[in-house]
Specification:
By secondary structure, the chain is an alpha+beta fold. It contains 6 helices and 5 strands, in the order H-H-H-E-H-H-E-E-E-E-H. Helices cover 47% and strands 20% of the residues. 29% of the residues are buried.
């Protein structure tokens, strides 16, 4: 099948999606681009925008949040295959984190390092929200956690008296 037919088929399939899913896919594409730009900057400048350093968020979530976790995960993974730039683990994790942050859902970004089969040092990033791993949950046991960034919601930041 030639490239033209593949593109037409994908466009037709996209047009058939519900409007809310289309918006989420476009949003995922935008945040993947934004995260890729952030990856080009020095990490010390980007780190404060990722959340509180070495602070995890709770492992609990509501049923509605679990549904959103799955939708965001699906949108980020699907659109990462459509980008013309590299959209690997860190880019996907940051994009998903920003999408969840926009919906006021807490998440934790993990940065880890380990070794591949040849003994070469490798790095990995993954995102957890509640007990659901939104991105990067492939073979996590291979990586030692180096840094954690917890992105809390506004309601969690307020003390019980302020609520």
């Amino acid at each position: 099948m030639n490239l033209y037919r593949k593109v037409i088929r994908k466009v037709r399939r996209f047009i058939a999606y519900p409007a809310d899913l289309k918006r989420m896919y476009v949003e995922a594409y935008f945040y993947l681009a934004w995260a890729r730009v952030l990856k080009l900057l020095p990490f010390a400048k980007v780190a404060p925008s990722l959340g509180e350093h070495m602070r995890e968020t709770p492992y609990t979530s509501t049923t509605e949040q679990d549904l959103l976790h799955r939708k965001v995960s699906k949108a980020v993974h699907a659109m990462s295959r459509m980008t013309w730039w590299e959209s690997q683990c860190l880019v996907k994790a940051v994009a998903a984190m920003k999408m969840l942050e926009r919906r006021e859902i807490a998440s934790t970004l993990y940065l880890g390092s380990g070794r591949d089969e040849t003994g070469k040092m490798i790095a990995h990033a993954w995102l957890r929200s509640g007990s659901y791993y939104v991105t990067g949950n492939e073979r996590l046991e291979r990586y030692a956690v180096v840094a954690v960034f917890g992105n809390r919601t506004k309601a969690e930041v307020l003390s019980p008296i302020e609520r």
